[in-house]
Specification:
Blueprint (H helix, E strand, L loop, with lengths): L1 H19 L1 E3 L1 H11 L1 H22 L4 E16 L6 E20 L3 H67 L5 H35 L8 E3 L16 H11 L1 H21 L5 E13 L4 E2 L5 E2 L3 H7 L2 E9 L7 H67 L5 H35 L8
Helix pairs in contact: 2-4, 3-4, 4-5, 4-7, 4-10, 5-10, 6-9, 7-9, 9-10
Length: 449
């Protein structure tokens, strides 16, 4: 009974643990990384800031409105606010009003600042989208590395299973005196080497899974794994396009290029803003004010002085003023001129960087195009090598089984097959990833279907 309960508990534990491990597909990994990356969240905050800057620039073009009110009490010598004459008494005074100012012309700097704020918001969106593109590529590469390592581990285990059968058969032949004991030792050495390969393969799978989890910013490494799936070489017509065609297509949609180009436009706006300091500034103002004082004396209809009440004084002593102000820059210590020079230098740097980014993109596409051709040939050559190694191994096995080949030569033939299988897996996923990179520059989303 106790043994039955223990078995049930063990099965429940294994089932529960297995249920906890989520098997992630490539698409799920890419989407999760884009949604949860900390750097992306920081860039999104930068984008929010850029949108606030746009609101600031628009607000600078609108009139402001400010209200004010003060209350004070004076005892002793003071100036009577009614007649501006000195007096020696206790007085309670209230002043209130509001004012408004608007910039009518400032060398078009306000308009250029608004345009710059709009461009900056767009530039930050390009920067954010470019980061997402980079993350998609990095996640795809890390994902394929896990798949590649898992396939190699399966190959190592399958090879070890075959060696175990050979070792069992060899042991029987040695015990019956057909083969010398040295052949058994050689097979056992081969098995031990394959066990080491399995241990190394398991380590590589674990490390690559951890690397992928870190890209996704997942810390529960034990319960993180990818879906059990294999990928064949996907059909693609990308090589029907020349590197020049791919480059021209990339120039039309790549976010890194658009971001670099927008930096040039921002620098041009900065230059316009700096040049605006050479021009006059025209502003308008409007003010309204009123006051109250308990020492106010004004004559009534019969010429008798009296103190109006609070509400009456607010209407009696209110007034408005309005006008315009023109400021003409004459000399400002060369600050305006130097700011223009700095803006020109920044514009030249932005243009040079844009040209450099275009060259980098062209070189990257050229290299990606060469890589696709190179890794395709490497994969085809690896498959041919594996086929030849397998035929050689089968021939060696036939000779070994009838005693015409010693265990050392047989293990060498087997080792060459193992190396060829590992090389096929490696070149296969190298080729898939390079193919996806080139397609990505052509505007094809990352997908292994």
């Amino acid at each position: 009974m106790k043994n039955s309960i223990a078995i049930v508990l063990l099965l429940f534990t294994v089932t529960f643990s297995s249920a906890q491990v989520r098997k992630w597909t490539l698409q799920e990994c890419v989407e999760y990384a884009v949604e949860n990356n900390l750097t992306i969240e920081q860039f999104e905050l930068d984008l929010e800031n850029a949108q606030i800057d746009r609101s600031d620039a628009l607000g600078d073009m609108l009139p402001n409105l400010n209200g004010s009110m003060s209350a004070s009490s004076n005892t002793g010598f003071s100036i009577n606010p009614t007649n501006n004459l000195p007096t020696n008494s206790t007085a309670f005074n209230v002043n209130a009003g509001f004012s408004s100012n608007v910039t009518l012309f400032d060398g078009l700097r306000n308009i250029n600042r608004l345009n710059r704020a709009k461009m900056n918001a767009i530039a930050n969106q390009y920067r954010l989208d470019n980061l997402k593109d980079d993350i998609r590529l990095n996640v795809a590469n890390a994902y394929l590395q896990v798949v590649s390592n898992k396939e190699q581990l399966k190959t190592f285990k399958a090879q070890y299973a075959v060696t175990e059968q050979d070792m069992k058969r060899t042991k029987e032949l040695v015990e019956s005196g057909v083969l010398p004991r040295g052949d058994l030792l050689e097979i056992e050495a081969t098995a031990a080497n394959q066990e080491q390969q399995i241990i190394n393969g398991e380590s590589l799978v674990l490390i690559s899974r951890v690397n992928l989890a870190q890209l996704l910013q997942i810390t529960d490494y034990e319960n993180f794994d990818i879906a059990e799936e294999q990928f064949d070489i996907p059909p693609s017509d990308i090589l029907k396009n020349s590197p020049k065609v791919i480059f021209d297509k990339a120039m039309s949609f790549r976010n890194d290029i658009k971001f670099s180009e927008s930096n040039v436009e921002l620098a041009e706006q900065d230059l316009k803003i700096a040049k605006g300091a050479y021009l006059p500034t025209l502003s308008g103002f409007f003010q309204y004010g009123t006051r109250y004082s308990d020492v106010t004396q004004i004559p009534d209809g019969n010429g008798v002085p009296y103190t109006p009440n609070f509400t009456d004084q607010l209407w009696i002593f209110d007034g408005i003023s309005y006008g315009a102000q023109l400021n003409v820059p004459i000399f400002n210590g060369w600050s305006a001129r130097n700011n223009v020079k700095r803006s020109k230098i920044s514009l030249d740097k932005a243009r040079l960087q844009f040209e450099q980014d275009k060259l980098d993109l062209e070189n990257t596409i050229q290299q990606a195009y060469v890589d696709v051709n190179t890794f395709e040939k490497a994969y085809i050559a690896a498959e041919k090598t594996l086929e030849a190694r397998r035929l050689s191994y089968e021939y060696a096995k036939e000779r070994y089984d009838v005693g015409l080949m010693n265990a050392f030569d047989f293990s060498q033939a087997q080792s060459r097959v193992e190396n060829a299988q590992a090389n096929v897996i490696r070149t296969k996923y190298d080729y898939i990833f390079r193919l996806k990179i080139l397609e990505f520059y052509f505007g094809i989303p990352i997908s292994l279907n």
